[in-house]
Each structure stands twice: as structure tokens, then as C-alpha cells.
Amino acid sequence: MLGDVTAATSRVESGRVTRERLLEAAISRFAEGGADTSFDVIAADVGVTKGALYHHFGSKEQLVEEVYKEAVRRHAERVVAASGTGAGRERLQGLIDATARLYGSGTPFYRLLLRLHVEAGSSRPHLAAIALRVQRRQRAYMTELVAAGQADGSIRDDVDPAAVGDTVNAALQGLLVQQLEPAAAQRRATESFARLMDTLL
């Protein structure tokens, strides 16, 4: 009986690892060639059959959804880490700087994130609920950083934390789209926003 339990645990762990490898392969392929990359190509990257992809994700659109969730999670992890220490103003600026740097990196990963954000509002409406949840969480986090700055005296107390959070969130979404612009235009946009925040806070 113990052997049966051990075997079952091993199968579960093996399935989890395979799923993670498939998701990683999908992120890489989608970043390079778009979300229309075939299941066959992704499965071949991992050395499994196309049936394994259907087993773990059900359909192409469910795989796209999982890729979007994971891309959003990875980005959030990076910017939260960049805004984890210091006074409230310093933390907010750390988030803005990290976001601008990552969005402007021009990497396939961030081009994929932009593409899926856009598709959430157009050709893949089933992603819209994810995008809306992300926006709510981002605004809430930025509002918390402003309130923390007001509490520690690093941000003036006559501004509305929620209004600043909304403004920063909207501006950062604009910076995501700015990656389509030449590098010099991206830098100008980032610098202009930094000056605005200095004046506002």
C-alpha cells in the first residue's frame, strides 16, 4: 500500500514538472512567434506528445490564458521586489523605475506581455477578466505605497492616494505601449513622467 502511495505521489510530481516545462516552452515560443505557435512545436521542445499539452491545458486558448497569468505573475514579482524597501516615496519610485526599465527592455517576454494585454481587449476577450484583476491589484498596491509615503512624511499629505495610484497605473500602461517607439522616445516619456511625479509628490 505504501508503494502505491509513493508511486501516485511520483506521478503527481512528474505531471507537475511536465506542466511547468510545457508552460515555459510555450512562453518562449509565444514570445518569439506569437500565440498562434502550434502545439506540435511546443510539445517537441519538451520532448512529449501533443496529447500531453491537451492533457495539461485542454486547449490552445487555455494555454494562452495560463501563459498570460504566468507572464503577469513574473512581471509583478519583479516590480514588487524593486519596491520592497525604503520610504513610501522611494518604494513608489522604485516600482516606476523598474517598470519603465522592464517595459523598455525590448525583450521577447515584454513584447509578449504587451501583445496579450492588447489581445485581452480585442481578439481574446476571455483574457479580459485577468487583465481587469491585474489592474485592480496594481492600483491598490500603488495606492498603498502613496499612503505609506504620506504616513512616513516622504509624500505630501494633500494628495489623494487613490488618485495618484490611478494616475501612476495609467502612466505605466502607457509605458508598456511605449516599447513600440524608438528607444529615445521611450526615454523621453519616462523622464517626463519622472519630472511630473517629482512635482506632484
Automatic annotation (TrEMBL):
Q: Name one Pfam family in it.
A: TetR_N
Any one GO molecular function term: transcription cis-regulatory region binding
Gene3D superfamilies per the UniProt record, alphabetical: Homeodomain-like (1.10.10.60), Tetracycline Repressor, domain 2 (1.10.357.10)
Residue stretches in coiled coil: none
List the SUPFAM superfamilies hit by this protein, alphabetically.
Homeodomain-like, Tetracyclin repressor-like, C-terminal domain
InterPro entries, per database record? BetI_C, Homeodomain-like_sf, HTH-type_TetR-like_transc_reg, HTH_TetR, Tet_transcr_reg_TetR-rel_C_sf
Query: Entry's PROSITE patterns?
Result: HTH_TETR_2
- The lineage's top-level taxon is Bacteria
Q: Which residues form the HTH tetR-type domain?
A: 16-75
Q: Which residues bind DNA?
A: 38-57
> Which of UniProt's keywords are assigned here?
DNA-binding, Repressor, Transcription, Transcription regulation
Q: Which PANTHER family does UniProt cross-reference here?
A: HTH-TYPE TRANSCRIPTIONAL REGULATOR BETI, HTH-TYPE TRANSCRIPTIONAL REGULATOR RUTR
The protein's name is HTH tetR-type domain-containing protein
- Organism of provenance: Capillimicrobium parvum
